[in-house]
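[agent] plan:
  1. take the single chain provided in the ticket
  2. run structure prediction with default settings
  3. attach structure tokens to the ticket
  4. add a short note for the reviewer (M.T.)
[agent] executing step 1
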Amino acid sequence: MNNDDPLNEQFTGRSVFSVEITPEGVMVKTKFLTEDGRVLDMPAIFPSPDYALAQIDELRLLVSQKFSEAVKLSGQAMADTTAIVNDLKKNT
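[agent] step 2 finished; step 3 output follows
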């Protein structure tokens, strides 16, 4: 077996979630954070039911926070749009 083969490389670290706001909604991806700080695209691996449920609870919190952030951004965008429209009305 070739030790230089990246498919055979072993990693130590933990699964993490990447949670982002997109135009379609909140997007969740699983990643793997290695002990040396690399972030790799990999499926989440849960070694026990307790750990899995704890991570799911954390994911719920992250998703909720992103939706709250999206609402705030949407509200700010509406406020900015209203201000622009009002400025245009003043100048016509």
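[agent] step 4 note for reviewer: The CA atoms of residues 3 and 9 lie 7 Å apart.
[agent] ticket updated
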